[in-house]
């Protein structure tokens, strides 16, 4: 599988990616290497990475607790202290080995430590392979508000080794499909169509679907790296999806994975697309049916509607206090900076629940 070259870095695939990693390490002559993992990734993936690194440079593993609830400034502070105590300097390298929490947080930690050290993302979940590790967004949550603190800076390299997916529970693997489906809905009808037959997928098929999905995001990000216009389209499903994810984050019986929340958000925002931009209702019904078939249908309690809507006020896409949505015109095309009244948002919840 051919590497994908972006303007700033290379996205490498499977076993050949480790040759490129070792070449990067040897060429840059790093003083030390720090591998950031969570406890799950450390258990299932670290040994595979260490086996493939060929260097005499000192390697230290930094482990954090898994889960979105640990993606915060307290975790960053503990990591900055650990880096300092272990003698990290500006010639050190950080390798972020894990899912979206690890790559988001690890990139942010690396960008801020001594005003910035090199970092490499090695995503181990489907979600982080097709989304979190690509595009240079690094950051942490501020309480229940997702990704409020951060910076856009690209890694020096991304390694995609799909064999890591073998260690994932089915629920986590399925979560990553939401971002791939989103890429098809906003930009590539063929990619969306290819994802319809998920039950018949082989691992080789999944490799190419991941490759296609990364290309969709890569092309959008390169045209608008700082999210002024086009890159905002990647937020389809996220205005409501992030609010739902945040609202239920600390409710053990209702907490949703990122992809599960975004799937709900895409159903809701497809309904808004029909009402505001005239997206064909048959397309909306098919999107709803496909997403519910793939992710299930956890109900949104009507008593939670107002609280979720309240969280949307903090969405980063908002302008002048107005909540902004990305909505579909058709499968494969969308419009940014759309507004919807609260009563219509409530109707979208009702449409999803029914």
From TrEMBL:
Transmembrane segments: none
Domain 3-dehydroquinate synthase C-terminal: 176-318
Organism: Mesoflavibacter zeaxanthinifaciens subsp. sabulilitoris
EC numbers for this chain: 4.2.3.4
Organism phylogeny: Bacteria, Pseudomonadati, Bacteroidota, Flavobacteriia, Flavobacteriales
The protein's required cofactors: Co(2+); Zn(2+); NAD(+)
3-dehydroquinate synthase N-terminal domain boundaries: 62-174
Assigned keywords, A-Z: Cobalt, Lyase, Metal-binding, NAD, Nucleotide-binding, Zinc
Keyword hit for NAD: yes
CDD domains: DHQS (cd08195)
PANTHER family membership: 3-DEHYDROQUINATE SYNTHASE
Entry-linked InterPro entries: Dehydroquinate_synthase, DHQ_synth_AroB, DHQ_synth_fam, DHQS/DOIS_N, DHQS_C
GO terms assigned for molecular function: 3-dehydroquinate synthase activity; metal ion binding; nucleotide binding
Matching Pfam families: DHQ_synthase, DHQS_C
Enzyme class: lyase
Coiled-coil spans in chain: none
Protein name (record): 3-dehydroquinate synthase
